[in-house]
Amino acid sequence: MRRFLRTYYPEVLIIGAIFTILMIDLAPDFTFINKAADSVGYIYSAKYLYPSYHTSAPLYLLLSHVFLWIPFGTDAWRMGLLSVFSTTGACVFIYLIIRNLTQKRWLAILGTIAYGTSALVLSQSVIVNTYAFTTFLAIGAYYFATLKKWKLASLMLCFAIGVHLLGVIVWMLFFIFKDFRKNWKAIAISISGFLFYLYIPITSRPPYMWLPNPADTNIVSAVVGDTISVISMLVGNISIWALPKKIFDTIGLIGVSLGVVLAIPLIYYIKTIGKKILIQPIFWLAFVPIILFVGELDMNTFDYCMIGVPFLIIMACLGIKQITERYHVRAKVLVYASYVCIIGVGVFNGYYFDIGKVTDPNMSASKLYYEEFPKIPSDGIFMPNGGWNWEAIFLYNRENGKHIYPICIDILPNEIYREQLKKDGIKLEFDEEAGLSLAAMKTAQSIIELNDNVYTTVYTDVKTFGCVVVNANHDKSLVMPVDEALIKKNETNPDWQWIPDNPYEIMRTSLFMTKWGYAVVSPYYNFRTFMILFLLIYGSMIVVPKLFNRRKKKNENTIPKKEKEGSPTSSL
């Protein structure tokens, strides 16, 4: 042990420092910052073993259940430790990968610092969410793949699928490795990750947080249908008119997450490799999650990009190696600048993402849970504005022995959900002709008008999701007003800005209520439509000529040998 510490003390100090920063920044309790709005639902599902959200992240919930056995700290802090340990483990894998690929110790240390203090990585590593763990498994799978240890790589892929469906992307891309494709045992291990989703029917029981009552709808079809619905709603549905701004936002998001300076060697590496980069798995592992985010309707799916960050950093470090080997002494300036810039940005990120003191000093979600929820009587109906805190009532009911009925405004356009509400005695009216956003708001207003004892939230600070609980008392104006003209304009001819948003404000989700309240949607002129057209046109340009050439060769082969010899061109 002493020999190991004497040899690798710089690495131990660096990874130890990253772990310390993560522990300091770790959310002490409930928070909605950095898109931790999912956290309360995950905590409830992990603690009491219920399905959660659309596909439930079964392996994540099972492991989190173990973390919740820790005898100290809040539930949110305990469960957040899984994110901290995941990112720390990912740093180890990144160090080993860069060290093996470059044979440069100092470069591996630089890449480790860049990842551990990356803005996007830090934002997702100090909250309760699945992306830090998914990224750890993805980079672990790539590490074992570089060593050609296919069974270990496939085991990591198996776990990745069990945590998040983004693991499917990583798993599919690994088929680029020829040796992996031939190893049927490794493939079988990878596919077995879907068995984790048996968690959903096994744990499904009342009260149902997201899934409908199995007595009315088959649980399997409900999960599959809900997943397909969400994917079809979000993926590629962003208006083509809003796409330029989304690209600018993504560049800013990735730029600050690479510490800015690493963008230079990253571009150099891609340019140097040329077209061959398209057959390298690391390229697709880096950019597929980012492309997915660009076409997403919801800006809050920025956390998808986290999976691409480690692979971008690895390519950037490979680019630095190429530059130093080609330009020798002059390249030292880039090396020193990289270290200074990465450490400087890392220090800022470590300060900025300290949730309990800087990013969310008021701990608004915790105040809502501990100070505002007690205002709601046991037989009350809770329908909050914003939609991110309605599932917290499930945990609150279980912990406090109450029977508050939660309603999510965002799901009101779902017919199955509305029928379930009616069966439970909730009176409502639904406008079939209104658009989804407007219909949801009108239905919410009807619930306030037609039902007694309805409670909602009034925001005191929308950027930190600070709010108070009030008795609606049939006052439908308490539902956040919807500008009908604005929604109609967004759906047909939206105005979009060229100026991108602050990437740090994107990561802390402070723009969710102030700027993204009305997403730019287009049923026809959207990213998905243009991507399909592009693939059809590009595919036809490649496939059709190949089919033509194949037919031409086939016809040539059918010509008799004597006829070929006697032809005018046979003597040329």
Q: Explain this structure to me?
A:
This protein is mainly α and 572 residues long. The chain has 2 domains: 321 residues, no CATH class; 119 residues, no CATH class. The protein is built from 27 helices and 4 strands. Strands 2-1-3-4 form a 4-stranded mixed beta sheet. Strand 1, helix 21 and strand 2 form a beta-alpha-beta unit. The C terminus is likely disordered.
Sum up the structure in keywords:
globular; mainly alpha; 4 strands; disordered C terminus; 2 domains; 572 residues; 60% helix
Provide a quick synopsis of the model.
With 572 residues, this protein is mostly helical. The protein has helices spanning 2-25, 39-48, 58-67, 75-102, 105-116, 119-125, 131-146, 150-163, 166-173, 178-182, 184-191, 199-203, 219-234, 243-257, 263-273, 281-294, 309-327, 332-352, 355-359, 364-372, 392-400, 415-423, 436-450, 484-492, 503-507, 527-558, 561-565, and strands at 381-382, 405-406, 454-461, 466-471.
List the helices and strands and how they pair.
Elements: H1 2-25, H2 39-48, H3 58-67, H4 75-102, H5 105-116, H6 119-125, H7 131-146, H8 150-163, H9 166-173, H10 178-182, H11 184-191, H12 199-203, H13 219-234, H14 243-257, H15 263-273, H16 281-294, H17 309-327, H18 332-352, H19 355-359, H20 364-372, E1 381-382, H21 392-400, E2 405-406, H22 415-423, H23 436-450, E3 454-461, E4 466-471, H24 484-492, H25 503-507, H26 527-558, H27 561-565
Parallel strand pairs: 1-2, 1-3
Antiparallel strand pairs: 3-4
Helix pairs in contact: 1-4, 1-5, 2-3, 3-4, 4-5, 4-7, 4-17, 5-17, 5-18, 7-8, 8-9, 8-11, 9-16, 15-17, 16-17
